[in-house]
Write a structure and sequence with these properties.
Helix content: under 10%
Strand content: over 45%
Number of strands: 25
Distance between the termini: 47 Å
Amino acid sequence: MSSQVFDSRVNYVGESPLWHPLTDTLYWVDFPNKQLMSRKGEQTSQHTFDQMVTAIGWIDQNHLVIATETGLYRFNLDTKQTQLIVHVEHQVSSNRSNDGRADPWGGFWIGTMDNDATPNKGCFYRYYQGQLKTIITDLTIPNGMCFDKSRQRAYYADSAAQKMYWISLDAVTGWPVDEFSDSELSRQDARLFFDFSDSAVSPDGAIVDAEGNVWVSLWDGGCIVCLSPDGKELERVDTGTSRPTCPAFGGELADKLFTTSAQCGLEEAPVTANIHGTTILLNTKVKGLFEPAVNLTE
């Protein structure tokens, strides 16, 4: 058996799993239901926000970064209070946030998209040292943001295009290197990493392991695929449900691989190994990396 249920609560669209290395807790969101979920051993919790929360990172033992429909916020895990860090497209009512992740330099990247997935209305932004900058434009469903610091790369996906890309980053600052004439990169400027468009699957969330391989949850693919840094498929791990959404490394040694999944669109679909929308632990031997902390110091 290649997978088992880690948390049986059903998420309409589970996303952004995050292992907090200071508390040994797995957090994730069910963003259509505005829920932040967590599990530590047998202890579970959930908190409901007044906005959708689509991506999270950790700041310290007591605080998370949460990305909502209007911006990035600091969330106190004890008091449940939120504090605005920076607005992101808060005046664009037709858009919302989507996938996001902390980078190894202490920054946080967040994607935005049209609520109806209108083509080319999405972007990726980076927040770092008090600055919010638009990095990538002309996306439809921004996903798969993850980082390989040793190779000075950021990977990302446009799920609608069914493709993954990569761009080069500065080794010191983590900003994209000045390879192009414009300060913002169109999707067409990036290098193609992997093309899924000859299949029915879409790349969703992604992470990078200790060897620099990229692990991608495949929506409608029922698996997580492992890709080498040169874009070769190395293996696939069955998730037991057809819509896994985003992987995460966790456990005390970052050697456990989790994925969130979605019930969305599968309400009437037969259950295979795992109930659709549950959070799943994959039975695979891989050495991962803990997610870095977000540094809010300007």
